[in-house]
User: Fold these one by one.
Assistant:
Number 1:
Amino acid sequence: MTQDPDAGAHQALRLIGPAPRNWVLERPGIDHNVVLVGGGQTGCAFAWALRRAGIGKVSVIDAAPDEAHAGVWLHAARMNLLRTPKSLVGPELSLPALSFQAWYEARHGREAYAAIDRIRRVDWAAYLSWYKQFLGIEVRYGVRLDRIEPAGDHFRLHLNTGIETTRKIVLANGVGGTGGPYYPPAMEALPTAFRAHTADVIDFSALRGKTVAVVGAAASAFDAAGVALEAGAGTVHLYARRDTIASVPISRSRGFPGAYDNYRSLPDAVRWEQAVRFRRYGSTPTVDAITRAVAFPNFHLHLSSPWESARIEGGQIVAQAGGAEVRCDFAIAGTGYFVDPNARAELAGFADKIMLWRDRYDPPVDQLDDYLGAHPYLGEGHEYLEKTPGTAPYLGNIHVHNVAGFVSFGVPIGDVPSMKRDIPGVTARISRDLMLADIDRHAERMRADVAPDFGPELYAAALNRGGLPPRGSRA
Ligand SMILES: Cc1cc2nc3c(=O)[nH]c(=O)nc-3n(C[C@H](O)[C@H](O)[C@H](O)COP(=O)(O)OP(=O)(O)OC[C@H]3O[C@@H](n4cnc5c(N)ncnc54)[C@H](O)[C@@H]3O)c2cc1C
């Protein structure tokens, strides 16, 4: 282990040399070439990728007041270990010296890294903090995007701090970024004092001694149950719709490079069938999330028990689930997120112009799925496409980097598995668009006079020396 844990990372930056100068041409009245909405791992990795592509005037904004509240890792994520394998390429993109592995080994040694099965969540958060600080990525915390106003060849961004202009937008705004947390209708009817979503910051200490219901059976539901039990909840009941817990990680069958690298080019029918297949098999909780909850004798699992209705009676929740009556003090929805551009304030005014999968693809009757149909049908650069060509050309300058890209790209966009393929891909697209948008001025620039590197005096001494030309030469 070296004394300076950052020595390897410094050396890697030295070897790749300085980032290119900003080549994007100035336009009057434009504050930013690209605004990254969200300063989590996606926003920071994009900031680095755009810098290396020579794209300047990039601004990263985040509504959270500070780093600790941004992203999910230190609040909404409650698992002890990341769900994804430790070996995936993450924000380091093509530079291994910036990887989690390099960061961890520099601090704890190779053997320590080899010994961990999956990455501890708090270590991942610490690594991301280091990445941002080491690369000098500035995130403007406390700056929230409220509305995107298309304005010809650029956008006026309505921020809580004022209006700024940009040519490109990347929505790196997290798992609910094209919709929001989903509540089953039965829970939605409950007063907010009696319910929370796993996306919320939950005061688990207030649940000490209480009877808690968790609705849903994917990883976040089991994590919430585990944390509630560890915090001293009296009893925790988890209600699953299915008659078994989803245990088949069905997407693994498409985990080979041909499918991953080329997913966007696959026929619509193949991508839709894959998305439907994933929905039918369900999102699998990790083994450790289940074990964590099951280890408590006061944890109860109820299968085939969707919540059908709920009301408040005598200061408690009384619900019907799978035909049985449930009484509890507090209910947590671990039911994931919905996708609907119309639900997003920042897209108000043009959400209905965005092409969705249901506008583009008619599935066979045995593959109908409204939830998947509401996902945007994204272009190759993750850009929104127009439902009706010619009605909203500016959509091509909004690049979506959140889970709504799942049907188009086959992995939850923004998660670690998407980073290796999609951040370079979108960066290349932004670069191409910015270049072509100013092609006349760039062509002029490329036509410019170029000073010679040397004059004829450099080789003059070798001329007219009187020697005979070699045999067979034309002279
Ligand atoms: C419980 C849970 C566990 C997960 N576990 C894993 C895992 O193990 N492995 C994995 O790969 N992925 C996991 N994920 C997915 C995880 O969300 C992503 O990997 C990661 O957080 C994505 O980073 P991001 O930067 O895209 O989004 P986020 O980390 O969610 O960051 C989005 C940022 O956007 C900001 N923002 C949102 N709206 C606005 C706005 N209007 N204006 C300004 N800023 C805004 C937010 O404040 C936030 O900081 C998990 C997600 C959850 C919820």
Note: The chain has 15 helices and 17 strands.
Number 2:
Amino acid sequence: MEKNEIVQQLQHFRKNDIPWRDGRLWSYVYYLDKETEEIGKLAYMEYLTENGIDATAFSSLLNMENEVIGFCREILRGDEAVVGTMTTGGTESILLAVKTARDRAKAINPGQTEFEMILPETVHAAFYKAAHYFNVKPITVQVNDISLKATAELIRPHINKNTILITASAMSYAYGVVDEVKEIGQLALEKNIPFHVDGCIGAFILSTAREGGFEIENFDFTVPGVTSISMDLHKYAYCPKGASVLLFKNDSYRRHQLFVCNDWTGYTFANTGILSSKTGGPIAAAWAVTHYIGKKRYSEVAIKTMEVAQTIRKELSKHPHIEILADPKYSLISFTTPGVNIYALSDELKSRKWFAGLQFKHRHIPTNIHLTVAAHHFNNYKEFIEDVIASVEKVKIENPPLLDKDLSHLKPEDLPKLLSELGVSSEGLPEKMAMINQALEQLPKEISKELLIGFMQGLYK
Ligand SMILES: Cc1ncc(COP(=O)(O)O)c(C=O)c1O
């Protein structure tokens, strides 16, 4: 193919993607402005072909990574002993935090064969992936029923001699609250157990908002007991994807993250992260974008984001059928709609070209819609508020039926029939997902997991 044709094709492939650039999408993408995007692209392309595999061959990447880590250490108020590395995303940072804690425990206590970590029920799914990959048993602990925050009191009874790591979120993705990090840190110190704060989504925006005078709950390296923090730059630092950091209190912890193999026949294999060869693009882009935006503007953008999120919460909660979950004060929102079919509401919003994800009910927490508010919503959040309210009114009047089936005892062999009744075919999913979402929510977890895996098998050839 000719270059022009390729470019045209690439642009054409996008035609069915969600139009994120104009703020219709309420997660996944963080977009500040065209100039920042250009700086990120320019730096990314400049280092596209350099390989992050070997710091001695590409000292450029090493230097940029060290500068980025220095900047993040400052943001997270770490002292001179704090060290870190860049990873390709929040999930990799979390995988490494767990692997590091496990390997540290093994080194300190070579006889230990069982490893457990404490996961408040609101931590990100990446911790379960880490548990699965690294054979660490996840001990899921309830959060406070009202605040939806993890607390030391609720964690304490689950700690035992196998506990290698305590975790908490600042903020939790689903409900946007900061766990009681100070108290959990005290507990971690008392029990002498590493404590990881997942700041993948929250750490950057919270810290830069605080720099600008916004009041936040403390969660960073100034909190006694915190031993590691993950923070994504490809979220609220507006860097291109592939950029997260994992910082440790000192190198005695980080030592167990590093992997060296000198037992094979090729080059010296010494990696900080899960990947070995990796493009230098995200490192260069993170260096460039953080320098381009700078601390002052980051603070301004963070505070504006908090204000926009606050306005959305305030305006939505005026409606008698909209309820904000917990009491989030920052940039994430989840709301439910008592008395109004939220599955149909999600479809209605989609028909108005808004894409906001459903989060299924969990214990006493009802099914809800999640919003990650970011800079690309600054110009259209008022329209969004109006549309949510109009959609709630419309769904209330139309009052579409809820799924009238008890699926809690459904057997795998009954699935094909159920799927065809719900309109799922080999052609794909129907436009309206309300019934499918209810079924997914109600199915026994093992069955819905198989269903989703089957769905992925179909998608990826
Ligand atoms: C709290 C939290 N942790 C971890 C992650 C995972 O990040 P990534 O998608 O970059 O792997 C996310 C993503 O939204 C998150 O919100």
Note: The first strand starts at residue 83 and ends at 87.
